[in-house]
Amino acid sequence: MRAEQTEREYEIRVWVPEGAPPASGYPVIYLLDANAVFGTMVEAMRAQSLRPEKTGVVPAVIVGVGYTAREPFPPDRHYDFMMSVPEEELPRRTDRATWPEHGGAEAFTQFIEEQLKPDIERRYAIDRSRQSVVGHSLGGLFVLQLLLDHPGTFRNYVAGSPSLHWNLAWIARQQETFVSRMTDKHSEIHVFLAAGELEGSHPSGVIERSRAFTQWLNRTDSRVVRADFICFEDEGHVSVLPVFIGRALRFVSSD
Questions:
Q1: Is 82 within a domain?
Q2: Annotated catalytic residue 199
């Protein structure tokens, strides 16, 4: 699928539950980094949604947003998932090389809202009141940027090991004005952050930053935002993905 604004190409993968949809339509999960984790989420959904009364996971359409490249984490994701950040605010690479091009998060948001969502809603029976977005690492950063800048575009915002250290100044500015972007028209918003225990030694401070972000959300004056954070024992930045995805499915099913 080609983005009209940027002409960037995306590989969209869709999984639809068997059987007739509910009268209101299926819940829908928009999953970033589909190259790496689409299969993981689909298999978790297939197994767990058979007995939702036991697992807490209800059938939902899964829309994976990925790339035509074959590697699990193509460099294009830096552009799509990140806001424009001044060079001096970027993390320093140990090899002193430059980071891939970034700054396309607004255009990527526009692609999702104006092209991808309408296309999915034309093709499948979707409950627009039960939309979720799930991302990990830079994808988790994008999810939280989306929450701060466009609250209410989804009901559930799920961020695993979010790379909050990439965009600290922008995030701080958005936090100052976040409540002003919330209105009485917004239904309840649920936010889930997670990280792996073994990430605690990383200089990004992902565990501490994720926990602090969760606490900040729960302290805001907004009455419609609820946030949770979990640190998974004995898991690292990549090994956390399967357990994070399993918990994410339960989280988005509980609204």
A1: no
A2: yes
- Tens of pLDDT along 175-207? 999 988 876 556 789 999 999 999 998 888 899
Q: State if pTM tops 0.90.
A: yes
Active site annotation includes 78: no
Active site residue 187: no
Catalytic residue among 132, 161, 199, 204: 199
User: Of 137, 161, 204, 253, which residue is the catalytic one?
Assistant: 137
Q: How many domains does the chain have?
A: 1
Q: Quickly count: other Cβ atoms within 10 Å of residue 89's Cβ.
A: 12
Cα separations (Å) of 126 from 55, 119, 129, 187, 240?
A: 22, 11, 9, 17, 29
pLDDT (average), residues 135-141: 97
Within 10 angstroms of residue 5's Cβ, the number of other Cβ atoms is: 14
Residue 80 lies in a domain: no
